[in-house]
UniProtKB/TrEMBL annotation:
TM helices/strands, residue ranges: 31-60, 93-114, 126-148, 168-185, 228-248, 285-304
Protein topology in the membrane: Multi-pass membrane protein
Domain ABC transmembrane type-1 span(s) in chain numbering: 89-301
Single GO BP term: transmembrane transport
One Pfam family in the UniProt entry: BPD_transp_1
Family: Belongs to the binding-protein-dependent transport system permease family.
Name of the protein in question: Sugar ABC transporter permease
Keyword Magnesium: no
Organism: Reticulibacter mediterranei
Length: 312
């Protein structure tokens, strides 16, 4: 009985303490929500609501001048026979398949080169990052001059080694590779920064142990660096792939989708259909097909991540 009486005051003392802890947690959650509220409002207004609206509009024949008529899946059926959409899809896939591996490999290579404790290395890193933080339109205009067939710097450099450069932006064969080169040059600096962050978090004692075991530089990269970089590599692959599917500015400024349909991408097709021809319903259907493709690609990448990425 005495023990029971001794425990009851302790229990009574714990209850106010637990109540105050719950109140404090609610206050902290409320403060956190208030800080997040502006971002949540922006997400709802500029992302979530437009995405839902675009999905609804994709079932309408919505002409900005003539109004909207519900047509069900007709916009999606039309995509199956649309030669422009087919060309834009193939061009976008070509761009992704070529530019993503190049941007990742070059970014990793430059990160390995600049991951050195040498004087002035920060300057080199800033130089490599500079194209990424520069406006795409400004870079595209500059590269458009560089690609000029007669006086452009690219063809002049090729002429120094005995190569006759093509008409880059007016050739159906070379126009898309020209956009790929520009895009890789612009984006690899960001990948370099991400890889650098991963490289600098790898414990040095692992390299020291590998050197003591007689591992060559390639073996150290293969068995130490690359496995420990797998989480960063996965992140870089995902964001680079998503960004490549949305290529638009370069093609608009440099080629306007030409010559012919050689550089017309899905996002450019959306722009042409929606904001030049004013068929917003059909443009929304194209946008949702693009979303579905990116979503499926991302799911596949996450499936591979379970098998290939190590967080240990």
């Amino acid at each position: 009985m005495a023990k029971t009486l001794a425990i009851e005051p302790e229990a009574r003392q714990r209850k106010p303490l637990q109540r105050s802890l719950r109140v404090k947690r609610r206050q902290e959650a409320s403060v956190a929500f208030l800080f997040l509220l502006p971002n949540l409002i922006g997400f709802l207004i500029f992302s979530a609501i437009p995405i839902i609206a675009a999905f609804i509009i994709s079932f309408y024949d919505w002409d900005l001048l003539l109004g909207a008529n519900f047509i069900g899946l007709d916009n999606y059926k039309q995509l199956l026979t649309d030669n422009v959409f087919r060309a834009a899809l193939l061009n976008t896939l070509y761009f992704v398949v070529v530019s993503v591996p190049l941007a990742i490999v070059i970014g990793l290579g430059v990160a390995l080169l600049t991951n050195q404790s040498l004087p002035g290395m920060n300057i080199y890193r800033a130089i490599f990052l500079l194209p990424y933080v520069t406006l795409t339109v400004a870079i595209a205009l500059a590269w458009k001059w560089l690609y000029l067939p007669g006086t452009g710097l690219v063809n002049q450099l090729l002429a120094l080694v005995g190569i006759h450069g093509p008409n880059w932006l007016t050739s159906p064969i070379w126009a898309m590779p020209a956009l790929v080169i520009l895009s890789v040059w612009k984006s690899f600096g960001y990948n370099m920064v991400l890889f650098l962050a991963g490289l600098q978090n790898i414990p040095q004692h692992l390299y020291e142990a590998a050197i003591m075991d007689g591992a060559t530089p390639w073996q150290r990269f293969r068995h130490v660096t690359f496995p420990l970089l797998s989480p960063v590599t996965f992140f870089v692959v995902v964001i680079t792939t998503i960004g490549s599917f949305q290529v638009f500015d370069q093609a608009l400024v440099m080629t306007q989708g030409g010559p012919g349909l050689a550089t017309t991408t899905l996002v450019m097709n959306i722009y042409q259909v929606g904001f030049q021809s004013f068929h917003m319903g059909y443009a929304s259907a194209i946008a949702w097909v693009l979303f579905a493709i990116v979503f499926v690609c991302t799911l596949i990448q996450f499936w591979f991540q379970r098998r290939l990425v190590s967080y240990d």
